[in-house]
Amino acid sequence: MAQSRLEKIGTIFTRIQGLLRGGAMKAEDKPIWYDVYAAFPPKLEPRYDRPASNLPIRRIFYAEDVVRAKLHKQNRPNETISLTDHRRNTQSQQFVQLYENLRSQGALDEQRIYETTLDLLAEQRQQLRSEERADDNLGTLPSDELETNKSSLLNDFQQAEEQQTTTPTSTPGKAKKEGVGINIDSLFKD
Predict the structure, then answer these.
(1) How many domains does the chain have?
(2) Mean of the pLDDT values across residues 40-55?
(3) In this structure, is residue 154 part of a structural domain?
(4) Residue 51 near residue 85, CB atoms below 8 Å
(5) CA 18 to chain centre
(6) Residue bearing the bigger pLDDT, 13 or 77
(7) Distance set, CA 85 to CA 43, 81, 90 (Å)
(8) Is 45 in the same domain as 104?
(9) Which parts of this chain are annotated as the region Disordered (predicted)?
(10) 174 pLDDT higher than 60
């Protein structure tokens, strides 16, 4: 029984048990679940030939699933979702939260709540976009300041180039004393 890997011959537990008894598997190599299974065996042994139960599969739907399905059916959200970002809610999560808030107030019927929630979500997206644009504009300089910064940077490079061409760097000690940049000969010296 231990040599076969067929599921029809015994269970995974009996096969591991046979490997341990026969010495083909060391005790330290046994699976983590083995001791738990041995201490608490199931009521019915999990064999391949055991008949399946005739219990009907229950359909599990939450109230928000119906709302989310309606949203995705009529308005396809076009966003990129990062599964590692737990701080930000997706558009469908935001929609369900807004929908539940409006429904808890109880003033409108279901269709009207849906339409109002779509409008509120669109307004929120618009506000986020305008805030992002404002943040981007704060990070950039006006065009006249940008031009002056470019020209001053260009002037700085030109002045540095003139200083390097006019200052002779014949001896490494002299260059260090005058503070005129880096001596390249000493950098690549073996």
Answers:
(1) 2
(2) 86
(3) no
(4) no
(5) 44
(6) 13
(7) 42, 8, 10
(8) no
(9) 127-190
(10) no
